[in-house]
Amino acid sequence: MKLTTFVALGALALGLAVPTMAQAQTEVRFARFFGACEADFGTNTDPGTPSNECGVITTLTNIFNAENPDVRVVPEIVEWGPYYEQLAGRIASGDVPDISVMHGDMLINFVKRDMITPLDEAFTEAGIDVEDIAPGPRENVTIDSQIYALPQDFVTWLWHTNSGTMAEAGLGEVGAPVYPTSIEEMMEHARQFKQATGLPYLALTLDSNAMSRTLYTMLMQANYNLFPESTNQIDLHSPGAKEAFEALKQMKDEGLLVLIPDWASAFTGFSNGEYGNLIGGTWQIGDMVRLSEQTGGALEGYVAHVFPAINGEPAVWSSSHSWVMLKGGAATPEKREAALRFLRFLFENNIHWARAGHLPMRTSLMSDPAFTEMPYRIGFAEIPPIAEHLPKDVPQQRIIQPFIGEELLAALQDQKSTDEAFAAAEERVNTYLSRLR
Amino acid sequence: MTDMTSTAAGMTAAATPRLKSWSWTELLFVAPYLLLYVVFLVYPLGLGFIMSFQYFDLFAGQAEFIGLENYQQLFSDRIFQGAVVNTFKFVIFTVPTFVALGLLIALALNRQTWWAATLRTLFFASNVLSVTIVTLIWRAVYLPQKGLLQNFLDVFGIQNIALLQDPNWALQAIAVTTIWWGIGLPMVLFLAALQQIPGEIYEAAELDNASPWQTLWHITIPSIWRTVVLVTIIQIIAQFQVFGQINLMTAGGPNNSTRSMVQFVYEAGFRQWTAGFASAAAQVLFVIMIVAAGLQFWVSRRKQEF
């Protein structure tokens, strides 16, 4: 046999073998948001390197794929905003992912439509210890005594603080700022801060979700029930709700609170030391820590602190991310086994998710030094008991949240009165909820 | 009476030319396009019309006939009413500007010089950009305190301009963005039309001592009138469908001052999961567009007859 013929036959054999080898890998289609960061973490397998959601989940996927050569988890990344629209389109067309990320408050909408597989038996099968899931996140994904998702974290609302400028205004020390315990005290602190530094005390992004989460938190602190009669009817008539909002408005009118057009500008302004506190979420902590290390002193002594109890008892809005298996996905036994193996891997490596700023959902990790030794996390031990969310039976919470935020932001910017804004928010929410079947 | 009727019928028949009957060969040629047209346009249009009378759950794929309920809710919906007003305002801001500015630029650049060729390319260049790039550029222009516009206004001592956060200016700001983005197409269409006008007509006008204004009004405009109508109709249809730049620049805010009808349809259908309600809004938009474009076409034809 001539050498060329031998090489040709060898190449043909290899060509036939390669697809066979590839077919041996079970593909798990993993639908998620959190962004795409292949350029930075596409090949990274060191979980200690990333500091944000995208980096951590990309790295965890890389590690799983490296450790499980018979499975290939393929991320299908969609932007956060239109994620559920895209998921709706995929479900409608029968293109169902095997594992999908889902916010805890969205679960009810899918469960009511019988679109999610309960995971109780699957967890036993996969060896996931349900008892180790913290009560809050577990309750959040439990509907009619069945667990429909694997929680991934606690997401909550907080203040990012530049403790350097706060110390300059006599509000604590660098690294240990002092926070208000009432609305009146917040106003005092804010005026003191403005007088000493010339800067606004508080910054709020012109993001309707940020406005709603802030209002929710203040109302939860006042122990106010937003849905007193039915989960299809919101009540925003409380004088307490308006008083809490008016305090923010007064701060804005006095220049103590500044409104920032978007998150990118808010991050830039905060890292340049342009305000004392920025209202934000736990998912931003990792990026803030990184920024504080890069600012060359402008952001001195960055501190993340749970939203202060300015309107009553300690309480804070919270949500969660979770992993679900939609009906129609993971259709073969091989895919199901591979998907469950990946879920177990995410459960076991939940500590790494905390690097982005989230709280882990496993009780055993809350006191683990691997978590408590992360920056600012020791103070977060107080969060689980005070974390609250809207009643989980309230449908489409992610839709009504911007309705409220849009109207209140309009009032905060003097585009309508407070009364008009609350009335309009209530009307929009209730009209929409009444439209749902 | 019978005679009069038959006479009238005969006159109508005489006035209307007899259409040649189609053949199978001709149908074969148009069949591929016709098939795609029916499958991807006529069928969804019909489906959308039916959906507008249903409570349609896009996720669960369940539909329930509810008669005119979607339309009743729609016409009493404050946000929808605002979206209709915003869309009309946007069309009024942009369409005349597209026509007038497009014609003006075309008239200025309708010459065989290197600078005219360069400027034609520059003006058309923005047309090839995607909506994402365009909105990124213009968000940077409008950024309060640090944006290009604010830097320019600082020279004149004008401060704290935040157009996209101001309900009185946000829609106009988006209209400017849209005109910057889309002016290339009207310009090219007008240029093509201007180059079709025979030079002899202008020479004759010159011999008759016609002023530039008289030449423009009595020769140029009538000669390109069909293109003016075409550009107007294209822009009416396009601007009634404004969505991408609004969604990316203001998301309908501030205070619902920029929410357009298409954005309303998108939000109701895909974000809020009320596809039947969204379909009703889409039908209303469809009717408005047909009426607006038809009206414009009718007015243009009447003017041409003069």
From TrEMBL, chain A:
It comes from the Bacteria. One of its GO terms (cellular component) is periplasmic space. The keyword Signal applies. Keywords: Periplasm, Signal. Its main location: periplasm. Residues 1-24 form the signal peptide. Belongs to the bacterial solute-binding protein 1 family. This is ABC transporter substrate-binding protein. It comes from Devosia geojensis.
